[in-house]
Amino acid sequence: MLVIASYASCLAQQSTKRHSPPRLRRTSPRLCSSTGGFTSDDTTTPRLVAWYDAQLRRHPLRTKVASSGLASAVGDAVAQAVTGGAFDARRCASFALVGAAYFAPILHGWYEVLAARERRWRADGMGRWPSVLLQLLLNQSLGALTVNAGFFFALAVAEDALALDLSVRTLEGARRALGDQYLLVMRANWLVWPLPSLVNLAFVPLRYRVLFMNAVAVVWKTILSLITKGG
């Protein structure tokens, strides 16, 4: 969340820079570069933010994997605190594994695909907002339907892998969960994600989109954990 807040400040500073007097522009501290990244000036940028941005530049997928795993673990921990009872460390680890090994690589590739489609649509003359809305439609239909269906199988595999008990029962249990809980997950998806996804696609640079969604995903993965725990 600290990274998101600093990045929002960066965007706001860039949007007002054109209207600043020349003297103020020379003396104002720079929070981000012209390419949308953060500067390494630790007097104006928190070191954690600068470090994360550097890791994202050097190792984009690895960094997204780590942040997604963390968001998933926090979401499950919150869900377990809400429902009460003894803390289930294996379940929390399962959600972290799903976030890192399943959600992060898929989101990384999916946003690349959407960005490529947007470039093609814009080159063909489509306006900015129509292209953003078309991406949102794809994201909340094809993307959400597919990724959320796969989530049940990814969670079943993660839980059994951590228990060292992978078997045919893994897929059988995932199919049952898919049949029982898929509609609940999709209804929750269409309540939670459209607005954050619109903001993400319209205003957040491509390389920060998984980070932005991970911030929202703490809430989303809490919901997923509550649904699957109840099932």
- Round the mean pLDDT to the nearest integer and report it: 81
Helical residues, percent: over 70%
What is the tally of beta strands?
0
- Poorly predicted spans: 1-5, 11-36, 38-44
Task: Report the sheet with the most strands, covering strand number, pairing sense and barrel closure.
Answer: none
Topology as a string of helices (H) and strands (E):
HHHHHHHHH
Q: How many domain regions?
A: 1
Strand content: under 5%
Determine the structural class based on helices, strands and strand pairing: mainly alpha
Measure the end-to-end span: 30 Å
Overall form: globular
User: Helical region count?
Assistant: 9
What does the radius of gyration come to?
A: 20 Å
Keywords: Membrane, Transmembrane, Transmembrane helix
Protein name: Peroxisomal membrane protein
Family: Belongs to the peroxisomal membrane protein PXMP2/4 family.
Subcellular location: Membrane
